[in-house]
Amino acid sequence: MSLDLLEQLRKNFEYDRWANDRYGKALSAMTPSPEKAVKILGHILFAKDVWLARLLGEDLSRFSSPFPEQNLPDCLKKLELVQDKWGRYLAGSTEASLAETVLYTNLQGKKFRNKVQNILVHVVNHSSYHRGQLAPLVTAAGGQRPDTDYIGYVIEIGEGGPA
């Protein structure tokens, strides 16, 4: 069975949710949570939120710093909110909408255009990149670094495992 592009992107966002949730739980288990790690998690959520706002054509004036000042409880609330908003967006997406071009302005005021599918891939990759930054911060602070590899996710959902 092969997945079409839209189904694969939806699966990638479910993986991203799973992995971000794991870091939220790992940071919650630490006392105190490393400040820099919380800031990076906040940045991941900021980026997911701003990219969705761009796709929806929303006013971006509510977004200022890409590293917003947030504590861990605020990040955890935002994590659920942003993940749910993405879930609704992806549920309403179609194969045709993936090929649409979106015009948007970045936070420095420069205008860009990109296809929706490229933005979706970017959002997941951006989160993965920054989770890579979280790993050594959690470990150095004595926390338990979660396994957030994609293959671990597909095994957990029953699509792989020992032979």
| Rg computed from alpha carbons, rounded to a whole number of angstroms | 16 Å
Distance between the termini: 19 Å
CATH-level-2 architecture: Up-down Bundle
Shape: globular
Strand arrangement within the widest β-sheet reads 1-2
Q: Which superfamily, in CATH terms, is the homologous superfamily?
A: dinb family like domain
Helical content stands at: 55-70%
Strand content: 5-15%
How many helices does DSSP assign? Answer: 6
CATH topology: Four Helix Bundle (Hemerythrin (Met), subunit A)
Per DSSP E runs of 2 or more residues, the count of β-strands stands at 2
Order of helices and strands: HHHHEEHH
Pairing-aware structural class of the strands and helices?
A: mainly alpha
Quick overview of this protein structure:
This protein has 163 residues and is mostly helical.
Helices and strands in order:
Elements: H1 5-28, H2 35-56, H3 72-91, H4 95-98, E1 101-105, E2 111-115, H5 116-140, H6 150-156
Antiparallel strand pairs: 1-2
